[in-house]
Design brief:
CATH topology of the largest domain: Rossmann fold
Structural class: alpha/beta
Shape: elongated
Distance between the termini: 17 Å
Number of helices: 12
Helix content: 40-55%
Oligomer: single chain
Strand order of the largest sheet: 3-2-1-4-5
Strand content: 5-15%
Radius of gyration: 18 Å
CATH class of the largest domain: Alpha Beta
Largest sheet: 5 strands, parallel
Number of strands: 5
CATH superfamily of the largest domain: HAD superfamily/HAD-like
CATH architecture of the largest domain: 3-Layer(aba) Sandwich
C-alpha cells in the first residue's frame, strides 16, 4: 500500500497559466515593441526578485531609473499583476475538486510574490479555500528549488517522507522535492497528473 496521503501543488503553470504577455498585450499594441519590452525591461528575471521577497516599490523604482521612458508600463505591473494570470490550466481545477471531495489533504508550495499573492488568492478563493496550507516563497524569502523551502513546507504541512506527491512544471523543482522526501511529478498536463494520482491511490480511475 502507498504511504502517500496528500497532494502538494505548484501554482503557476500547474494550476494557473501565468505570463506577463497577458497584461502587456492590453497595453502595448505593436507586437515587436511588446516583445522587446518583455525581453529587455519587464523580464522574468526582474520579476523573480518579487518571488524571492523584494517589494515591487523597490524593484519598480530601480527599473524606472534605468528605463524612464517606460515608467507607466512598469508601474502597471504591480497593481495589475492579476491580469498576468488570466485562467486556470485546463483540467486542473477539476482534479483539485475531486481530491478535496475525497478528503485528500491539499497543500501548495509556490514561487510567488508575498505582495501579489493575497489579491490573487482572494480572486481564486473558491479553489484555495480547499487548501490546508500554502507556502509562498516571497513571504518566506526562499524560493524553489532551495531545499530549505521544502523542509519548511513539510514541517508546516505535517508530512513525513513519501507521504505527499508534489506536482511542479520544472524538473529542478521536482528533483529537489524528491530529495526532500516528497514524491515528485513533472507537470506535463492534467492527464498525466490524473494518471499519477490514480497510481498512488489518491483518485479513482
Amino acid at each position: 500500500m502507498s504511504k502517500v496521503r496528500a497532494a502538494v501543488f505548484d501554482v503557476g503553470h500547474v494550476l494557473y497559466d501565468w505570463d506577463p504577455r497577458y497584461l502587456y498585450e492590453a497595453l502595448i499594441e505593436d507586437e515587436a515593441v511588446r516583445e522587446r519590452f518583455l525581453a529587455e525591461v519587464v523580464t522574468r528575471d526582474w520579476h523573480f526578485q518579487h518571488d524571492a521577497g523584494r517589494l515591487f516599490a523597490e524593484t519598480s523604482a530601480e527599473l524606472i531609473a534605468r528605463f524612464p521612458e517606460h515608467a507607466a508600463l512598469i508601474e502597471a505591473f504591480g497593481p495589475r499583476f492579476n491580469e498576468t494570470i488570466p485562467h486556470p490550466i485546463p483540467g486542473m481545477i477539476e482534479i483539485v475538486e475531486e481530491l478535496d471531495a475525497r478528503g485528500v489533504p491539499l497543500f501548495a508550495i509556490t514561487n510567488f510574490s508575498g505582495e501579489f499573492w493575497p489579491p490573487f488568492r482572494t480572486r481564486e478563493s473558491h479553489l484555495f479555500d480547499r487548501f490546508r496550507a500554502i507556502v509562498v516563497s516571497g513571504d518566506e524569502r526562499m524560493v524553489k528549488p532551495d531545499p530549505a523551502i521544502y523542509a519548511l513546507a513539510l514541517d508546516r504541512f505535517g508530512l513525513g517522507a513519501c507521504e505527499g506527491v508534489f506536482i511542479d512544471d520544472r524538473a529542478d523543482n521536482v528533483a529537489a522535492a524528491n530529495d526532500a522526501g516528497l514524491i515528485g511529478h513533472l507537470f506535463e498536463g492534467a492527464e498525466g497528473v490524473r494518471a499519477k494520482l490514480v497510481s498512488l491511490g489518491l483518485l479513482d480511475k
